[in-house]
Amino acid sequence: MNNHFSLSREMSRRAVLGGAGAAVLAGCARIPNSSDVHTAPVKGIGLGAQGNVAVAPPDQGATKIDIVRGFLAAHLGVDDGNRIAREYLAGNAREAWNPSTAIEFAESEGLVFQEREGNGVAVTVPVVSKVSATGARTTNLEATRELAQFRLTEVDGEWRIAEAPDALVLGAEDFARLYEPVNVYFVANAGNMLVADPRWFMRQTTFASAFNRLALGPAPYLKGAVRSALHEGIVIASSALSRNEAGDLLVQTPVSVLELPESERALALAQISETLRSVKRVSSVIFMNGSEKVSVAPETYPMKASVGHRLYGSGDSGIISLASDTGGASLVPAFASETVRCGRVSLRGRYASAVSLDRRELLVSALTTKAEVRRETFGEALCSPSIDQFGYAWTMPEAGGPELLAVHPDPERAVRKFAVVWEPTEDVAFTSMSTDGVRLAIAHGAPGALTLSIMGIVREPDGTPTGLAEPLQVSVALDSVQGIAWYSEESILLWGASGASAMPVAIAWSLRTGFEQVSELRENTTSVAGSSEARLLFVGSDDGQVVERTVDSWAHIDARGRDIALY
Length: 567
Known about the structure:
Elements lengths: L5 E10 L22 E4 L10 E4 L8 H11 L8 H4 L6 H4 L4 E5 L6 E5 L3 E12 L5 E19 L2 E6 L3 E5 H7 E10 L4 E10 L4 H6 L13 E2 L13 E3 L5 E4 L2 H4 L3 H16 L7 E5 L2 E2 L9 E2 L6 E4 L4 E3 L19 E5 L5 E5 L5 E6 L7 E4 L8 E2 L5 E3 L7 E5 L8 E4 L8 E6 L5 E8 L2 E11 L5 E4 L3 E4 L4 E7 L4 E7 L7 E6 L3 E7 L4 E7 L4 E6 L4 E4 L4 E3 L5 E5 L1
Parallel strand pairs: 4-9, 11-17, 14-15
Antiparallel strand pairs: 1-7, 2-3, 4-6, 5-6, 6-7, 7-8, 10-11, 10-12, 13-14, 15-16, 18-19, 18-41, 20-21, 21-22, 22-23, 24-25, 25-26, 26-27, 28-29, 29-30, 30-31, 30-32, 33-34, 34-35, 35-36, 37-38, 38-39, 39-40
């Protein structure tokens, strides 16, 4: 079937946040079921909990609009092969219809049905998000009104659907019930790092089916920034998966993986293992070759990026540790006598960056004792920098553009410049590089109309950046942003002013699940550092005081520093 949703781009002014249900107002505009009800269990080797839902076959004498409405209602009971939904289809359409994608619509706005010439029915759908055949989910900054076109025909005096879009159309509540996020993992093009690429699969999808989506490549915002060690054609059959008495998932390793060079084999096994482990019901994966375990040399196994748990910040001079056991210790020899702001340390503690007090000068250095400081002045105030494990410090003018800047400590390497992907007149709140050095997050826009852009960094094998991938963008539910920082391998912490609170608030946006509020903050907050994995949240003020969030209060820590962060 070839009739897809037409891109009519009639925009609703309601902003969409990004997670299933997060941006959709609760409402009663669900697709109604008819009185003749059939209970269809959701079956299969699932990725999560199963459930039952009532769906109905076609009523006798139903109108064309009734048939289309009933067909969409039958999407809610996704049984084996969508058996009930297919009863609404005519002849060849029953076999040809392949709902490999999903459309999430705004329940608060509902669906609008209209008959068209030629036995057609058009359904106006306020689209919140779409899930592709690969499981990649895209969300609209604003609900987009698109048309779903249906053609009907008479079969034995009853209307049936001859052509329909190859997609399930679901309200937010039902989307959250039927779909769940799973991290699939790719390998960074530079550096021995695994990168999470969240996908959305139906809860009855088998492990093998979810894993095999890896062969279809990363989401657009990661294209060119990551790769797969699993070459095209490497698949895992359901029969290759089993469980032992301890509940471990046993994987019969494909021969084509066993034949890979050792370094590539380690990457391939890591991709498979971490992808399967991201499923809630899988805690341990054991690779087998027949009855023998497949081992991997620890030094060849790639890292997963984590935010870290040791606190640091800018001191009266240099970048200092704020951890309880090393509070006040200088971390960057080259900055020891410098008065800097927004100091940042890279993964593994190899490089550091900061800006001068007037924010017009960028400082970059290696962390060796004899390293020198590279200084670059750009003539205008800069955003707080981020630094990757290859030594490149990333920043851009606070005024919004027109270029993203990357500076290496080696003065022989040219400053790398990349054009921004939004209007150069927009203000930029902050930038933040993920720990794996693959994804850059940037908050930009006008107050009350802020956008978070996440994009992959395209690099040479030695880490030299050469370009930016197509950005993933979501609107931010804050009136203004005071800062951003990565909160986990898949989520970003943002803090600022919200109309719903008199105090500044911290929210987190996850690539898997969208937005959630983390905590109200203190009135004088100027910097925030947190790790969802370590369950840490620190807040700093410009006078150097730092407090840690406990269960129900804030506790002062002994060390003092500004512009706090974690490593």
